[in-house]
Every structure is written in C-alpha cells, then in structure tokens.
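User: ok so my PI wants both of these folded by tonight, can you help

Assistant: No problem, let's get them done. Here's the first:
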Amino acid sequence: MTHRPTEDGDFVRRPIDQPVRPGRPHPVEPAWTQPPDPAQVDPAVLGALLHRHGWQRRGGAAGRYGRWTPPGPGGRGMSLLVPENRAFPDSDDLLGEALMALSRSGSPAARDVLVGLAVPSDEIHWWRDVPTGPAGTASWAVEDQLRSAARQMLLAAALATRARAGYYGARHRRPAAAQLDGVLVGAAPGGRRLTAFVPVDTGRPLTVRLHQALYAAREAIDYQRATGGMDAFDGAVEAGVSHELTEALVALVRGTEGARIAIEWAPAAPVAGGGVTPAEPVEFSPGDLPALREAGARYLSEEPSMPVRITGDVVRMRRSGPRGEGTVRLRVIAGAEVPHVRMTLDEESYRIAGQAHLVGLPVRVYGRLESRGGFRRLADAGGIAPVQVDDAERDRLMKSLQENLDFFEEACGGD
C-alpha cells in the first residue's frame, strides 16, 4: 500500500498495484508540436497580439500587410509579414509563413503570441520593482514570491465569482481552485514580471472580477490614506475585495519598491457590453501596506458565523476516554461550501454518529459554522440524526469504512 495526502493533511491508502491516475493534459499541449492552422487565425487578432507583446510594425504595403519585428536586441534580422485582412490572394501564404516563423523562434515574445492564438485568453500581468542579480537573474525566493502572490490573487478572484464575502476561509475553495486549472503562465527573466493567460471560455468571469476588485481596492486605500476611515473597504466587498485579496496584495508588494497589475482582454473576444475597458495598470506601493493589513484584519474579524444544517459522512472520531464527549469530523455532502467540518458532540450524539457510520449512513446536524479557524468548525452542534440513502450510496459508504478502519479505532473502543 502507498499513501497520498488529502488537501487537509490526512493520508488515504492506494493499493500499490493500482496505476497512478495520469495528469490532465494542458489545453495547449497538442498545439505546441506545430504552428496554428492559418485558416483558423484572424489576421487582426494576430496583429493585436504582436502589438501587445512588444513587436514593432516597421512599414509594409498599406492596406495589405505589415512588417513586424520582435522586441529587444535579439530580434534583429527577423521580421514577419502579416496581412491586415484576407482580402488578397496571398494572405493565407503570408499567415502560414508568419506562424511558422513564430513557432521556430525561441523568443518569449513569440511564445506569448502563440499562446494567445492557441487559447484565446485574457492576459493578467504582474510587475514587481525588485533588484535583480547578475545578468538579470533572480533569487529563488524572489521568483517564488511573485508566483505565490499571483496565484493567491487569482484564487481570491475565483472565490469572488462564487460569492461575496469579506473572508472565505475554507468556503468555496475547492471549486475556486479548480477554476485555475486551465490558466497558463509565462514568466519573464529576473523575477520582476509574470503573465497569466486566462482562457476566455472558462475564465472570463474571474478576470472581470479581478479587474473590478483591484480598482475597488485602490480606491479604498486612497480613501483610507486621505481620511483615516476604513468605510470604503466595507463597500469594496461587493466588487470582490476580501481578506484573501488583501493578503495577496501584501504578498505582492512586500519587499519591493512597488508593484503593478494590468489586465488586457483577448482580442478575439471583446468584453460583452463594453462595461470593462482596458486601462492603465493598477499600482500599489509599500505605503499601502498598513491599510491593506488593517483591512485584511477587519475582514477576518467581522465575517459572521453562519447557522447551517449540514449533511455529511463521518470520516473521523476521537475522544480521550471510553465515555463522555468527543470530536467528530464530517465530509460535507450538502449544507455548506466547505469540504470538511469538525465538531464536538456530547456522549449521546457521539454514539449516534458512530453507529451511523458503522451501518453506512451519513448524518444531518445543526449548528453554527464559525468564521474563526476558516469556517472549518461547527459550534453548538446538535440534533444529529442518520440520513437514509439509496443502496448505491450505502455501498459506497461501507466501502469507505472498510478502507479506513484505522480512523475509527478510538471511536469503537469504548462503545
């Protein structure tokens, strides 16, 4: 038997002869072996992506094609002829040659354009003003700080697409993290810049929410620094600002002279209704850190506990002796947007929970989901009762019991 950790740190067993589940293929992996099909590429989109990623137009036949050269000294001697539209017979040939040249180039500017063509994506750019090492290198810690802060920020935005809250804790975390599965990352040397490519089909709500939340956070900080009041942060929750977002901004800015975030919409998929437009990067400085930290603490302390009725499987039981109250952990099936909760039960309720599990039934329980600890604990738990399920679900629960008997040694020892 081998062991793998769950997201909560517990270990479950997998038979050693069972094959490891293969990783999910990346959405652009099949496209990397050859350039995109010219017939599927809009010349206007290609031109917009070249301009976005620093390519320079150096003339060309007006109304027919443009000559583009890559950014930086490494682009000398290379140029692309890109048609402006498909009105001329040679447009497909020019597109094919340009795409082939991009696929053979090792330039990051070429790679980013190909990613934008392979998966129509909104682009999120982060910059950190930090010193670099020799020849533009970065220390491991600096690079890791940028990536970690960027992921925290994307996760905060994904959480805000699920619900509005000042503090999420464990709520909605699993589906929010799943929203990041298709996001692509392109890093620049030196640990100063990072780009995320968020697919439009699955990630547009996330990008829009992040755009709105960043501007709301900037306005709330400016208000706090001008007046000393934190009221603007209360209203900013509706725009997606949260404890998780302020923590991400602190992680991004800490140790720098400043940081910026910019969002650029996919040229192939303009934002519906025009309500969100391209704008200058949103900037944050070390002087913003006190306001961000105070706002994060405010969100953490003021998010209320929630009355809930939870249905879940008993997955762990523990108490210090053969009698008295004990602690029970449930895998949540319904009633709360968290994967697991813990609760303390009196002796009779503890016995009911143990018996329900032994016969393969989930339980239903009432209580208050406490914000303290990340909405992982149910306070004042009561009214516990087994819940009837169909035969297929009952068989699944019994199989789970047989695979995890060691979790219940303490539960079964005294009853």
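One down. Here's the second:
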Amino acid sequence: MVQPQEPEFEQAYNELYSTLKESTLFQKHPEYEKVIPVVSVPERIIQFRVTWEDDQGNVQVNRGYRVQFNSALGPYKGGLRLHPSVNLSILKFLGYEQIFKNALTGLSMGGGKGGSDFDPKGKSDNEIRRFCTAFIRQLARHIGQFTDVPAGDIGTTGREIGFMFGAYKQMQNQFEGVLTGKGLTWGGSLIRPEATGYGLVYYVEKMIEKATNGKESFAGKRVAISGSGNVAQYAALKVIELGGTVVSLSDSKGCIICQSGITKEHIEAIIEAKVKFLSLKDIIGEYSAFETTPVQYIDGARPWVHAGKVDVALPCATQNEVSGEEAKALVAVGCKYLAEGSNMGSTQEAIDVFEAERKSASSVGDSIWYAPGKAANCGGVAVSGLEMAQNSQRVQWTAEEVDKKLKDIMVNCFNTCYETAVSYSAETNKDTLPSLVMGANVAGFVKVAEAMKAQGDWW
C-alpha cells in the first residue's frame, strides 16, 4: 500500500486509517477493515516522458503522471498539477484524498490526480503551449468523458486547460467534456474559478452556525487566510461579502498582514498580477491599491503567528502549511474554526493539536473546530462535476443556478460529516463538538466501500 519514499501518501493514508480506527465503524461493520488494502492501491498509474521544444530550439524533458486511483463512483476526476515539486508520492496523496472528497460531493465521480514537474513560471505562452500539447499527446489515450476527466490545479490555469483541450480535440477528432475548467465560450461553467474558495466559506458558515446555534455568522469575524492564488482570492472575497475581515494572504515568498482588513481592491490587484506570476512583494510595490490601504509584508513567513487575534483560519496554499507550533499559536489567540482550502493543509501534529483541544473542551464552541480539506474544499471539484453535467446536456447554467447548487452541495457535505461524526463517535465527552475529520473520512470511505463491494472489488 505505502511504498518507501512516499511521505505525503503515507501521511494521507495514516490520517484516514487512524480516524476510521478511532471511530466505531469497524466495531459496527468489521468487514469494512479489509477494504483498506484494496482502496489504498491505485487502479492504475500512468507515467510518461514529455519532450518539448523551448524558444531557443532546445529539447526539454519532463516527467508526466496520471494516478487513476478509484472509479467505483464514476470516471476518475481530479486535477493536473504543474509544479517542480510534483512526484508520485504527492500525486498519490492527492488522488487518495480525491476519492473521498469526490464521494462527499454526492456526484458521480471517482478519484484521480496527475501532472508534471514542468514549471510554467518564467515560460513564454508558446513554450507552455508546446509543453501542454506534448503532455496531452501522451495522456490522451488514457482519458475521456466516461473514463477520466482531468481539471486544473496548481500551475494549470484556464490557459493550460485551453491548450490541452485544443490538442486533445485535434487528436481525437471530437468535441467532448474531457477536461473541466474550460473557457465559458467553449463548454466551461460559470462560478468554476470561484468554486473552491466560495465552497470553503459556505462550509465554514455552517460550522459557525452549528457551533453557535445560529447566533453567529461571518459578520464581524477576523479571518486569516494563507495563499494568494485562486482559492485564497475567492475565499477572501466571499468572507468580505459576508461581513468578515480578512487580515492576511501569503505566497511562497512571504505574507501580507493588514489588521484593518485586506480590501477588495487589494484582491483585484492580486488577481491581475498573479496571472503574470508576480510575487506579493512585487505586487504591493506596484499597485495603487496598496498605497491607499498599506499592508505589512513579512518576508519568508506564513501568516499564522503574525496575524494577531483571529476567529477563523483558512489555509489555502499547499499541503502541510500549518505546523504543530503554528496550530498552538492559533489556539492561543482564540481561533475557533480552521478549515482547509488546500489539500492536507495541516500537518498531523497540527491536527493532533486541534483535535486534542476539541476533545478537552468543557462546552460546545469552547475550542477550535477543525475541518479537513477533503470536505471543506470539495466545492471546486463539485462545480467541475456540474460542468461535466452541463457538457453532457449541451447547456450552460446561469451563475445564480451554479452558485445555488454549489452552496447546496457544501451544506449537504457539512451535514453528512456532522451526522456521521455523531453516529460513529467513540468519544465519551458529549459536551463538545464532534470530529469533522472523522465524520468526513467515515462518510466518504463507506460510500466508496459500498460501491466497490457491489462491483465485486471485495467481498
């Protein structure tokens, strides 16, 4: 199941299995434990060479991957990540998480993930186009609207999806919904760029409502957000729309802090500049929005220990971006809700801190409440699934229709996680909130396991 030198996948596997063991699932249904070795091995791993020509006429070589992890609930579904850090361990962890994340959406999608160690930063549009054409040429034989439907991820924007889709269409001689995140004029869905960030906030909105018995909302909450890409941008905009104050954003080089609140104008400048691969350090020196409302830039830092008092923390950058020490710092400043917009955004040490605080609370809402990425950030893949549905019908829904469906999916996902956590909890302290990480893992796992059994994958 877990191979040597796969730390990210090992972390994802251990996090799932340990929470299943701590629940009453295997006591109530002991047969489910034998599914673990089956579901934890990908159905198929595709690895290939990608050769392309740079602007100087030199041949460049990258590694390409697609991990087709589980198709019990539908075609493999998951993004393509283009980043120098991409390796098989990272893609296996992402694909493993994707299985259960997709199950929690309630849509008919299996789990997969892929990508390459190609870095689009610093490359010309022509170089990116040549790479994307070469990449999809190798992948095309393994994907299709009823087989595997990749999407974007880190480094894979609408530009890259467009190049890949065009090359696929030429090779296959057919127009099909084989990739999601497409342009609005050729099969894309409204609200897709916003979906992960919006969905994250909708999920946390339900957490706040449940913990306070409907007495509180995002209004007046101070919110620390990491990242400054797609997820962080739209999570921040939705928080501001709901009356919250966003006090931080970050990127790989540093973070910005604004105690009075990062503004819509700040975020609009970041949206414009990030397409040009500018860092936050560059952006705050070049855009007038940061002259009107100054921010503090901290080089080489994440925001968690610098944001001051916060009510909500939303990691939206990459995996393992909240350490155990940072988790303790968030607890110390009174953070009540942490939900991951990134995949596996918290280290196991951080999760242990959050869960220990939750378990030891003297009353409901008296500690931090943690929500894992497989539940809290499933809005992105949910709207990818809605894009697939629109493609099949040859229609495009309005932004209002898609947003309503997204919010319904996130509300149902929260309710499923909460109710499952209550049903399978082995904890004796009933005066605190249930474990959403356990609820998400059990709910997603059971749905996939039942489908696998019906299809003869285990018995």
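The domain at 195-376 is CATH 3.40.50.720 (Rossmann fold). The CA atoms of residues 109 and 359 lie 34 Å apart. Good luck tonight!
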